[in-house]
Amino acid sequence: MIKALVSILVFVINVLYRDRPIPRFYVLETVARVPYFAYLSVLHLYETLGFWRRADWLKVHFAESWNELHHLLIAEELGGNNNPFDRLLAKTAALVYYWIVVGIYVVNPKAAYHFMEMVEEHAYHTYDEYLKENEAELKSKPAPAIAVKYYRDGDLYLFDEFQTGQVANSRRPKVDNLYDVFVAIRDDEAEHVKTMSACKLDNGENTLRSPHEVESEVVLTGTDKSDQTTEADANPEMEATTN
């Protein structure tokens, strides 16, 4: 079922937007945000009902949605949402997929995380292919202002928070031109895959930690208490991970 849901999304995007990359990214990023909203909604519900509280997971998933928001804002600044049909399709698909993921997350959280892992894998390869085919053109264009603010000049706390496979404050992409921006977005998607892989682990509720929380513990105790191991860590090459 998860493969079918992802395949439908990929088929629609690939067929309708074969020769329109920026609107394609707009639609992809609009839909890519909503599973994180679904996770947050269900986690808040469980906490409200007194089942459990997973503060780190809430921070990480919100940071993931914040990252996807800025991917979306970049696509919008590049004109990806200029067509009313594209906006209608993206928002309709987002609404449908939100409720689907909520239902899956309630029944089987690992399946819900696997869904997003596959979506992020597709996004990684989509951006990677675009970079390879348009390198010279992209390097000749300036970076959008929203990208410079997010990746370089803004508050980078939430940028660190979604990358559970990285040490906090360790990754700082350059944004000298549009090519750099798409490299940063592509690499963000690889980090999302690692985080979704970590969420799927049998002991994920105990090992998935907020990067800044881990950093604080290291500073206070001198010991890194996080023993998180992800499926992606076993093979750090993104291409191998996603095949």
Global mean pLDDT: 86
Largest sheet: none
Number of domains: 1
Helices and strands, in N-to-C order?
HHHHHHHHHHHH
Structural class: mainly alpha
Question: Globular, elongated, flat, extended or rod-shaped: what is the shape?
Answer: globular
Uncertain stretches of 5 or more adjacent residues: 225-237, 239-243
**How far apart are the first and last residues' alpha carbons, in Å?**
19 Å
Question: How is this structure best described in words?
Answer:
The chain is mainly α and 243 residues long. It has a single domain (2-242), classed as Ferritin (Up-down Bundle), CATH 1.20.1260. It has 12 helices and no strands. It has helices spanning 2-16, 21-48, 55-77, 84-107, 109-133, 135-139, 145-153, 157-161, 178-200, 204-207, 211-221, 238-242. The radius of gyration is 18 Å and the shape is globular.
Question: Could you provide a short overview of the structure?
Answer:
Helices cover 73% and strands 0% of the residues.
